[in-house]
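debug: dumping io for the single-chain case to check the tokenizer round-trip. Nothing else runs in this session.
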Amino acid sequence: MTEQIVIDRRYRGPERSGNGGWSAGLVAEKFGLPAEVTLRRPPPLDRPLDVLRDDGRLELCDGHTVVAEAVAAPALDDLHPPRVVSLDEAAEASARFAGFDAHLFAGCYVCGPGRAEGDGMRIFPGPLGDDVLAAVWTPHESVAVDGAVRPAAVWAALDCPSGWAGELSEARPAVLGRLAVDIRGDVRVGEPVVVLGWPVEDLPKKFVAASAVVDADGTTLAVARATWVRIDPSSWS
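debug: decoded output
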């Protein structure tokens, strides 16, 4: 039988398509880790998408349309958080989250302020006074597998903080185009962690940013490098 993935509406980013990080993470779970996933189309919600494998590559397809593709991740060994950030610092930064004032996708599973506690992840990355953004995340049991957070949820947590690090706004909207993730340790359910985002490169039509999940002791549990594509917001449903 053909392998399939269904992206439940709960895990939306925009109102009618999947959160980029969660969707990419589901693809990565099928492909194997570490992985790099490129999103070719807005991931559809609530319908089966076919998983096709071919010579070291995995494609997620909606009929004949390729929605996403996964390959082995490039080496991310040199990717580290720019500095140590405590839980208290991250909590203070979250209070300055730009999305509280204006958010193009307020129902986003990861960073949408319109999502209730226990429903959305409610990761609100705010500025620390330099180029680094930080938030506190306490993973909910709904994303647990044997007490650890499933990879798709770690991918999701790494998604939006990288986007906000590229100065997302209603005037300069963007969507995730590509995400490469290296999970280095278990993220545990119920244990607060710091999620960081910081810019890498800003280009006319896209930007590159990085993100990390760090535990309370300062151990890096996961890192990501993301490419975001600037869009006309009316073009992405």
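debug: round-trip ok. The chain has two domains: 3-72, 87-235.
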